[in-house]
Amino acid sequence: MVVAGLLLLGAKAAEKPLRILSTFLPGYCIAANVAGNLAQVENLLPGTVSIHDYQLTPADLRKIASADVIVVNGLGMESFLDKAMSNTGPETAGKIVRLSDGMEGELIRDNGVFNPHIWLDPRLAMQGVSNVVKKLQVRDPGHGPEYKKNADSYLERLRALDASLDKTLQPVRAVAFITYHNAFPYFVRRYGLNLVGVVERVPEVAPSPKEMSQLLATIRERKAHGIFTEPAEGTQLARQIAADTNMKVGELDPLETGQLEPRGYEEGLRRNAQALRKILGAWGTAPR
Q1: Which is it for the CA torsion 101, 92, 30, 28, positive or negative?
Q2: Which of 51, 52, 224, 275 has the highest Cβ tally under 10 A?
Q3: pLDDT tens for residues 144-166?
Q4: How far apart are CA 173 and CA 35, in angstroms?
């Protein structure tokens, strides 16, 4: 009876689902779609809290310690994890999978460092999916084929998303516009868009009078027709710039925060494409 009980406990322990911890919305969506119902996926931060300058709490450290896999973006986005890794060392490091791994040839430099906003290019997000499924197969080999099947299904959706975005944005590719932060170079490169300037070259640092003068000159010289803020940020200054230069104001979401749902990433990119089309469409070409 004792042996049978131990075997039963062992079987139950083996059936315990993998615990996956992500750090921001795109990582959560990738993990949730690859894991399906085979694992528990939780985001470290609430969906409304920005990953930038985040400070870990004792509760966060406990979540990190109990996780089996930690999905991060890398490229400096999760500097707050340095503290956890210094406390736990190789144990935490071995749990981490970076969405950005294997993308060295695709990365864009910004002021001497790699711009981390890789997820705004769906094709780079596909590489992130591949990274995650490989990690889950290593940590939970018994469900390896199921993770692969889930990943293949999600990759098909991302390919369809990429094609849809390309079609939506085709008429406005040549129309010049401005963003508030330099969060969109991967998105712009993927779809051949005409981004000609940013308001804040350094996040949360207002442009100097010289920088503002240069930006206004660029807007007029390049005939920019739209300026895009981010959710709850930049609206007042953007409206002032728009009024001074006769531009329209829209909103683009870098998708670092948002409702934590498996399709949140896809829906967010579609909203961004529609926002660009709405603001810039009057100056675009006829759709093919």
Answers
A1: negative
A2: 224
A3: 999 999 999 999 999 999 999 99
A4: 36
